């Protein structure tokens, strides 16, 4: 279990989760099997039960009993709370749920960038048509802590990594991969990454014969990253499996997938030498 140091515990921070409100999502989900998507309400809030559970685990980690009580409400009640913040239910929105140690929950709402709703489902031909994001590797190492394993407003490590990667805006089609002291990829600064499966020659033939084996991998939580909602969705649906991957395993110019709770799934391209002279 991660240990919170006294200096970390004294910080003023909130737990957060960002997601998309997409009015087209309920209609899109009508064509999906009931076990292929985790929200029994099929609400416009993308993967909402996963966001609620992730926030609950963070509140439990930090010992915030009032926040735990608030987050233990049923999903339908949580939807009603979020609805009070939506200015126009016919439009897509980017939501940032913010909860403090006293259990107070506020929601920051901003207009969401337009995108095809199919990108919210698992990778398909639809989201293969987008231009890949530039994906670079952080030059520094980040020590795993409760603030990398849970999403909070204490994001200095991520902000510093994005500045080193020359990412100056949340709208930039660029991502930087966070690396732990062992050289393992933890996660992206705002996304979960997925890489082509690494196998030895002796096991590749077996994998080729087994259609059930995912062709993609994502870093395990033991590498120090947080349990992203789209990551959980991709794992539950068999799109990927967990496997530790180091910087040395990555290949320059190879394609990868990225995902988060606002943009769904989209392509990336790994550039190992982009900032080297």
Could you characterize what this model shows?
This protein is an alpha/beta fold and 277 residues long. Helix content is 27%, strand content 22%. α10 (229-236) links the parallel β8 (216-218) and β9 (240-242). α3 (48-62) packs antiparallel against α4 (65-71). The longest helix has 15 residues, at 48-62. The protein is globular, with a radius of gyration of 19 Å. The termini are far apart.
Tags for this model:
277 residues, alpha/beta, 27% helix, globular
Content of β-strand: 15-25%
Quaternary structure classification: single chain
Number of helices: 10
Main sheet, how many strands, which sense, barrel? Answer: 8 strands, mixed
The H/E string reads: HEHHHHEEHEHHEEEHEHEEE
Overall, the morphology is: globular
Termini separation: 41 Å
Which residue ranges are poorly predicted, with pLDDT under 50 across at least 5 consecutive positions? 1-10
What is the mean pLDDT?
91
User: What's the arrangement of strands in the largest beta sheet?
Assistant: 6-5-4-11-10-7-8-9
- Which structural category fits the helices and strands? alpha/beta
* Helix proportion: 25-40%
Number of strands: 11
C-alpha Rg (nearest Å): 19 Å
